[in-house]
Amino acid sequence: MGDLRPLDWFPKRFSEGDMDSAGAKRLLGVPKVSATEVLVRETAQNSWDARGDNSRIDFTIDLRSLRGDALDVLTDVVFADGAAAIGVDQLLSNEAVRAIEISDRGTVGLDGPPRNDRPFAPGESMNFANFVFNLGAPRDVELGGGTYGFGKTIAYVVSAISTVVLWTRCRTERGLEHRLIVSAMGEAFDRDDYRYTGRHWWGERIEDRIFPIVGDRAAALGEALFSSRFAGEETGTSILIIDPVLEADTDHEILADLRDAIRWNLWPKLVDAPDRDRMAIQLKYLGTPHPIEDPAGDPELAPYVDCLRAVRARQAGQESPGTSWPVTVIDIQTERSYGLLGHLALTRWPSPSDAPDSLTHHVALMRTDAELVVKYDEHRRLADSDFMWAGVFKPVRERDDAFADAEPPAHDDWVVKGIQNKERRRQVNLALREIRSHVSEFVSPGIGVTAPKDDAPSTAGLANRLAGLLTGLQGHGASPTVTVSRPPSQRRKRPKVSATAGTPVASDRPGWNRIVFAVVVEGGAPEGELVALTAGVGYDGGSGTTDVSEWVRPIGWSETGSTGPISLRGGRASEYEVEFREDVALDVDVRVVGAQ
Amino acid sequence: MGEVTTWVYPRIALAHAQRQVEAIRSAYVEGGVARVRDLASPDHPAKTPVETGGPVAQPGRLSDIRTAILGDLASWMDAPDPVATIARDTARFDIALGRSLYKRLDIVNSDAAHLETWNFLALVLLPDVTVARWPALHPDRVLGSPSKHAMQRLWIRERVLGGILDLSSPKPLGEDELFQLFDRTALARNHRLVRVLASAVIGSRATKRMEWARSLYKRITFLTGARLMDSLTDAELTQLVAAEAAMVPGPSPTPRLKVRLSADADEARLTEAVVAAWNAHADYAFVDGEFEVDMAEYGTAEAVRRLSARVGDADKHPFVVEMRSIVRDPVLGALVAGQ
Amino acid sequence: MTKVRVLPHRVIDEDAVTWGPWRIRDGSTTAVDPELLPAWDYKVELEFESSVALDLTRTLTSAGVDGSSLALVIVADCPAANVRLAASTAIDPLSGSAVARLTVPAGVLAESVRLTKNVVLANGLEDGAAGVARRAGSVLATSERSIVALEGNGGRFPTEAVDFRAVGRPESPWTIVTTFDSIDESFVGSVRLLVNSEHPVGQLTLAADQPAGLDAVMKADIVRRLLLDLSAREVDLSVECPEESVGDVIAGMCDLYLGMSIETAIKTLRADPAQFEDLLASSLDPFRAVWAK
């Protein structure tokens, strides 16, 4: 057995600006979903975020029972000092203590300086300090899911004594290093004239600070307490949550809850794709692997898997993979403002006779890369009860930040109100709206999608009666036109000319008629007015006067024999003769063209 | 109930349409049709569809329609230079566009009557098609003159002339011929008459078909003063149009073959075969002028040679091909070759 | 200036022709010689009917034709919709009268339709006296042209009738559907009242006469639904709203029925829904019309 000296206890004293740890726990909000779900979601998210350059990580949740040697080590090595301050002494007097061990391998581990009081270089990892010493560090992992750091706190919330053991192996300038530290968030307390915040650590005290134990000492203690190991050059983190209190009481039920939480929230991580990083998820009970069903084979999740694959393909610019039931992928966008916001995939399938339909008629909302199910957003069922539907939505990479901003600390919803930035608030709002509207069309096809029947009744009368609501807005209803009466114009007394048609008679030319017009001028100059007559073909809607010699032949004034204008004195009738074909109408236009 | 069918579409008012035209113009100058394509949208914030009377096509459907129409017109719109490609082939493109619009829109006729509807369709949904076909973007065409919008006209033509407009015809009815037909008030709205007239024009073998068509339309228009065309049956209309068509003056519609049937049975058979082939295939060949071949004078063999020489595309012309098959006949062939 | 048209054949004396009025039927109502049809839209089928009575003796003397080969042709010409339709009936040779009916299906016409009645020669005649019409279709008498307006600029609330059950909607009598992202978008382009054509109350709203108060109930409901929509979606109200936009129209409604701005109306709706309902009820007062008169 390695070096198992007792750890140093380091309770935090109050100094200016400190918050007691109960307050710190409250700061991080109240999740909408069960603690089990938050635990699974958040720890998985953190592990995913910590994958660094690796394209595959392992994530394991092990429901354990600490007995015998392990309990002895806790009592004598870890909590040699300070056990009473967090109430672990009572716990350790039991035969067995339940614990949940959550490990990831292939991640970068809790690297970086094991202290939070020195400035850090940009780009330098602060994983250790952030997890162990800070609460709610800003989101610094690109497209990572953990925005408020809830995942760093849920472990404390779940542990009845708010205590976790952290064992990590990471890369440092000195090479691979084991680190182990125990951390607790207890109640504030007084001791020896000092007030303490309730934050405790057990590790190696150097001067005034607490550090993790490192190297072989850490490895030895880790192996004594944890069931997981670090093989070869593996890096990663294991946490041991002591005495977890969850919704369920018995091991059996807790295991079932953990399995369900993995199934409902982490299934996207179980859907592999060659070009995506992978997370191998395992659930263990007392060290023995407990099977997790492939979501593609799970009748309730398979449709979601199909939808996820379709969205992934679309976002990668690839062909959609084949699916059992058709999947529709819709671009969620706003033409005017922000362009493409994300993709929604919807699918529909016949209801199995015995189906639990708990998860149909929902859209699984998740972020671009994280792919953690944020929420199952409920919508209407299909009108046709013989079918069920489901969908998946993911924003595009460029818009992922806006949706990240919308997530409360528990990452279990997208809340528009929570977004500070006005542009991002609108984007998320519009996206959610578009999703609702597309789902609506998908669920009740008929409005704006397939053609409704032509025989729907007219709504014109109703529309007219409701026009008052529009306060004057014009539409297309037939309305009385206001006739503007023109004031009588000041007209000069002009000469009037009239033409009276005689009876047409057959002309010498076969197929032609001849007709004589009597033309009279009234008023006008005593010497006479110049009058012109134009003859043309009369047709429906007008007269043809050019190039009509085939149909109309003006003969002319009987007085002059010419067809041009002549001078006519008022009162006297002159005659004008025209020939026209007997299958057309004749139009004659007589006018005064000027004074003599 | 009949008719209705089925969708109404968004409309935009003139002011917005004018702004849209300017945007299209700038984009075209900047980057050609490809740049204009970026302006295409299935939605417009100031759209004002008719308030009642039908389901309004939503952006989803409008996107699908746009995709379908561009698919129908791919051979022009996907070319590297759509404007030039269309300019070489306008008559055919117009028929294809009209056909595509009619098939894909499924628009209520009453809605199609409104210029604002076409302003939306042509300038917002299909700005690239509009600029490719009418790159000058003249307001009369793309905003709708007092009478009709250019794209609307094409839809109307398809609606009225549907089956008569043949894309595969070597000389489909051109815009001018159709413009005159559809813009003569007295004729345009009598669809039965329009169909009869269009068929007559297509079936005519006039060498200068556009003038021929114009004369025919004019003649028929003139008849409407004395007679109500609406009251005539289809048969009466057809007869009327045929009678007037025969009277259209000008170059004879069919290049003339003067033929004398020989007493010799074989020779007569050859003559008949040649004449039949001529009637079937010669009208494509003569785009300018006409000529007369006196088969009686030259003798059939020589006539065949002269006729074959006169047609274009020499070897591949259907007339020549048929001549060759006649000549394979031992008796007729001997007549042509030997003599 | 004078224009004269002469037909190549003799025509019937004006005094010998008595034209009947235009009767236009749309579903249940018949209008006589109307200048406009206020409740016409693209879903309305129309039947045009008119008649003529000829003095046959004077017809013979003026036009040279007897009553045995005449027809009444009514023509409906619609330039906007590029459509011209006609129907003809033979004129009774004994009485000299005829009634013709033309049915125009829904969705064909637009803007306005021009109507004329004509008496024509029904069949071609082999021979005829000189100057007497002998070609089929020769026009012997034409009425004045009537113009009936079908569309104009009368205000209309965007409304559509749909079978709610068939499209999977909850079976309310009506609902409001909005598609705008921002209130500066056009109102008629992004707001639609859907009326459930299969719900008895929905059907009542579409019928020719309504029970008292129904319109007021609908109006109140429309105002309420629009404001609830704006409120729930937290639509940005600070946007500048051009005329005819969603913001402009809803502001008009708030002003007219509640006497307040949109912002205040929504605040009231959220903070004091009872007050909101009271204001709406008192300004539209539908229940008075229903029960108290």
What's the story with the biggest beta sheet of chain A? 12 strands, mixed
Mean pLDDT of chain C: 91
- Name the largest protein-protein interface in this structure: A-C, 73 and 71 residues
Mean pLDDT score of chain A, rounded? Answer: 83
What's the helix count of chain A? 13
Radius of gyration computed on alpha carbons of chain C = 28 Å
| Beta-strand percent range of chain A | 25-35%
Number of strands of chain A: 26
What is the helical fraction of chain A, as a range of percent? 10-25%
Radius of gyration of chain A: 45 Å
Portion of residues within helices of chain C: 25-40%
Keywords:
heterotrimer, A: 596 residues, five-stranded mixed sheet, C: 293 residues, alpha+beta, five-stranded antiparallel sheet, 8 helices
Polypeptide structure, described:
The complex is a heterotrimer of chains A (596), B (339) and C (293). Helices cover 22% and strands 32% of the residues of chain A. By secondary structure, chain A is an alpha+beta fold. Chain B is mainly alpha-helical. Chain B has 3 domains: 14-163, no CATH class; 175-247, no CATH class; 265-337, no CATH class. Chain B has helices at residues 14-37, 59-72, 74-77, 82-87, 90-105, 109-112, 115-125, 127-133, 139-144, 150-161, 175-183, 185-188, 191-203, 209-223, 234-246, 265-281, 295-298, 300-310, 318-328, 330-337, and strands spanning 256-258, 292-294. A two-stranded parallel sheet of chain B has the order 1-2. The longest helix of chain B is centred in the first third of the chain and has 24 residues, at 14-37. Chain C has 293 residues and is α+β, with helices and mostly antiparallel strands. Helix content of chain C is 27%, strand content 28%. In chain C, a hairpin with a 2-residue loop joins β3 and β4. Chain C is elongated. The mean pLDDT of chain C is 91. Chains in contact: A-B, A-C, B-C. Chains A and C meet through α12, α13, β18, β19 and β20 of A and β1, β12, β14, α4 and α5 of C. β26 of chain A pairs antiparallel with β1 (2-6) of chain C, so a sheet runs across the interface.
